Automatic annotation (TrEMBL):
<feature type="binding site">
    <location>
        <position position="252"/>
    </location>
    <ligand>
        <name>Mg(2+)</name>
    </ligand>
</feature>
<dbReference type="Pfam" id="PF00180">
    <property type="entry name" value="Iso_dh"/>
</dbReference>
<dbReference type="InterPro" id="IPR019818">
    <property type="entry name" value="IsoCit/isopropylmalate_DH_CS"/>
</dbReference>
<comment type="function">
    <text>Catalyzes the oxidation of 3-carboxy-2-hydroxy-4-methylpentanoate (3-isopropylmalate) to 3-carboxy-4-methyl-2-oxopentanoate. The product decarboxylates to 4-methyl-2 oxopentanoate.</text>
</comment>
<comment type="pathway">
    <text>Amino-acid biosynthesis; L-leucine biosynthesis; L-leucine from 3-methyl-2-oxobutanoate: step 3/4.</text>
</comment>
<keyword id="KW-0100">Branched-chain amino acid biosynthesis</keyword>
<keyword id="KW-0464">Manganese</keyword>
<keyword id="KW-0963">Cytoplasm</keyword>
<feature type="site" description="Important for catalysis">
    <location>
        <position position="142"/>
    </location>
</feature>
<feature type="binding site">
    <location>
        <begin position="77"/>
        <end position="90"/>
    </location>
    <ligand>
        <name>NAD(+)</name>
    </ligand>
</feature>
<feature type="binding site">
    <location>
        <position position="135"/>
    </location>
    <ligand>
        <name>substrate</name>
    </ligand>
</feature>
<comment type="similarity">
    <text>Belongs to the isocitrate and isopropylmalate dehydrogenases family. LeuB type 1 subfamily.</text>
</comment>
<keyword id="KW-0460">Magnesium</keyword>
<feature type="binding site">
    <location>
        <position position="107"/>
    </location>
    <ligand>
        <name>substrate</name>
    </ligand>
</feature>
<feature type="domain" description="Isopropylmalate dehydrogenase-like">
    <location>
        <begin position="5"/>
        <end position="353"/>
    </location>
</feature>
<dbReference type="InterPro" id="IPR024084">
    <property type="entry name" value="IsoPropMal-DH-like_dom"/>
</dbReference>
<feature type="binding site">
    <location>
        <position position="224"/>
    </location>
    <ligand>
        <name>substrate</name>
    </ligand>
</feature>
């Protein structure tokens, strides 16, 4: 029997609903495999602004640092659109990533065969899609300084700074190579080296690191071409490594290969400390509280938590298998369903997935 402490940050909008289903899955896994999971709750995002005046209270940071892993729902919503930058919910998400030194974001883009019809692309284009996007998470234009708006000669002018060090580039590129070695040994590095100096250093760094991984095929691709190729021929990709903003945009685009943002999990990893796991979708305040949100991305994020932070491979696979079986049986939420399928609400979909969870096979 193993004991683990998991920090839970439900956040805003549909976050609490989808996180609840993921926690019920984790509780069932603990029962099936004789583990003990302790869940400690914290506040982040808009709910934290409302209750504490800041999107990331220090007690939340300490809670997360003293856990084995962090499960997060979603942050944000129009309610907080007029807040100053430091009080916007998204600042809480960026802040917790920075506080935990989570530099690598892993976003698997896997098409379940039973959901091929949900993709807006043709069957022959998306069939067998299985991509892992490795995104740098703590540098780039999202964190660069200065970042400001000011009065200029011709009115307001704004500055956003794209800043990277070679060391930051090297560690995420190396992570991409390490991941590629465990898959098909093919890595596509995405940049904008024809325009940006940062991308030219990125490409030079990737070529240098590649010499240490002779068994991995390295290709370079400009980000605009990568965006086109993702919808033209996604099967050409296996592992994609890229900087922060490019990874953010490309992974959201790639979600359409699977038919819905509600199907894509993510893991944010650092060195030695707890990882943070969250669905890549937003808080969807328009459907919050209506029991219609798709919990599968959060459930699959919980599977990644089991695998990457707790080292529980069999347990993670059992969750992924349960999701696959539920989909094969035709169970759907409204974002991936059609009128002839078994449309379920958030809680009902979670219950179905739990019904397919299996205990370890006894010898």
């Amino acid at each position: 029997m193993s004991q683990f402490t998991i920090s839970v940050l439900p956040g805003d909008g549909i976050g609490p609903e989808v996180v609840r289903e993921a926690l019920l899955i984790l509780e069932q896994v603990a029962k099936n495999f004789q583990h003990t999971f302790t869940f400690n709750y914290g506040k982040v995002g808009g709910v934290a602004v409302d209750e504490t005046g800041t999107p990331l209270p220090q007690e939340t940071v300490e809670l997360c640092k003293n856990s084995h892993a962090v499960l997060l729902g979603a942050v944000g919503g129009p309610k907080w659109d007029q807040e100053t930058p430091e009080r916007r919910p998204e600042a809480g998400l960026l802040g917790i990533r920075k506080a935990l030194k989570l530099y690598a974001n892993l976003r698997p883009v896997t098409l379940f065969e039973s959901l091929i019809h949900a993709s807006p692309l043709k069957r022959e284009v998306v069939l067998d899609t299985d991509i892992l996007i490795v995104r740098e998470l703590t540098g780039g234009i999202y964190f660069g300084s200065p970042r400001e708006r000011r009065q200029g000669r011709d009115g307001l002018e704004v500055i956003d700074t794209l800043h990277y060090t070679e060391k930051e580039m090297e560690r995420i590129i190396r992570k991409g190579f390490d991941v590629a070695q465990g898959r098909k040994k093919k890595l596509t590095s995405v940049d904008k080296a024809n325009v940006l100096e940062s991308s030219r250093l990125w490409r030079e760094t990737a070529n240098r690191v590649a010499k240490e991984y002779p068994d991995v095929q390295l290709d370079h691709m400009l980000v605009d071409n990568a965006a086109m190729q993702l919808v033209r021929n996604p099967r050409q990709f296996d592992v994609i490594v890229t900087e922060n903003m490019f990874g953010d945009i490309l992974s959201d685009e790639a979600s359409m290969l699977t038919g819905s943002l509600g199907m894509l999990p993510s893991a944010s990893l650092g060195v030695g400390g707890p990882g943070l796991y969250e669905p890549i979708h937003g808080s969807a305040p328009d459907i919050a509280g209506k029991n219609v949100a798709n919990p599968l991305a959060t459930i699959l994020s919980a599977a990644m938590l089991l695998r990457h932070s707790l080292g529980l491979e069999e347990e993670a696979a059992s969750v992924e298998r349960a999701v696959d079986l539920a989909l094969e049986e035709g169970y759907r939420t409204q974002d991936i369903g059609s009128e002839w399928e078994r449309l379920l609400g958030t809680a009902q979909m979670g219950e179905v997935v739990r019904s397919y969870l299996r205990s370890p096979i006894k010898s």
